[in-house]
């Protein structure tokens, strides 16, 4: 693994050969075996472990597409209605999910410039 993803030049500079994806299971443990050979044919080896850092390339996904709850009208402020859950496949701070209530108070026509295009096909 890694032989097709990385290249090494005569000066020992290791570069990537393709875009790497941290979420690809094959990229979990990338270990490169590197050989150095002198002009007399003597060889030494080392291993280079490459750790892919996370790119914030995933959106959070809710565990359900719809949640329902019933609440009595006389409940006090702070009464627990329900708990929603979402998961983000990214790592570290890129996986942290925060929640807010989205307001649909503005009709689509107020936030989008919609133009009708007529075609005589």
How would you describe the overall organization of this protein?
With 121 residues, the chain is mainly β. It has a domain at 6-50. Helices cover 3% and strands 21% of the residues. It is built from one helix and six strands, in the order E-E-E-E-E-E-H. A two-stranded antiparallel ribbon has the order 1-2. It has a two-stranded antiparallel ribbon with strand order 3-4. A hairpin with a 5-residue loop joins strand 3 and strand 4 (43-50). The radius of gyration is 27 Å and the shape is rod-shaped. Residues 111-116 have low confidence and may be disordered.
Helix share, percent: under 10%
Mean pLDDT: 85
What is the strand arrangement across the widest sheet? 1-2
Separation of the first and last Cα atoms: 54 Å
What is the chain-wise order of helices and strands? EEEEEEH
Which residue ranges are poorly predicted, with pLDDT under 50 across at least 5 consecutive positions? 111-116
What fraction strand?
A: 15-25%
- Gyration radius, in Å: 27 Å
* Biggest beta sheet summary: 2 strands, antiparallel
The count of DSSP E runs of length 2 or more, i.e. the number of strands, is 6
């Amino acid at each position: 693994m890694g032989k097709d993803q990385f290249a090494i030049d005569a000066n020992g500079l290791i570069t990537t050969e393709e875009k790497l994806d941290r979420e690809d299971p094959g990229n979990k443990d990338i270990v490169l075996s590197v050989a150095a050979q002198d002009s007399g044919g003597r060889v030494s080896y080392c291993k280079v472990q490459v750790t892919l850092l996370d790119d914030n390339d995933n959106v959070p996904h809710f565990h359900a597409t719809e949640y329902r709850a019933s609440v009595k009208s006389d409940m006090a402020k702070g009464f627990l209605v329900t708990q929603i859950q979402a998961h983000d496949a990214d790592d570290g701070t890129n996986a942290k999910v925060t929640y807010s209530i989205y307001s649909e108070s503005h009709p689509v026509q107020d936030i989008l410039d919609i133009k009708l295009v007529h075609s005589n096909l």
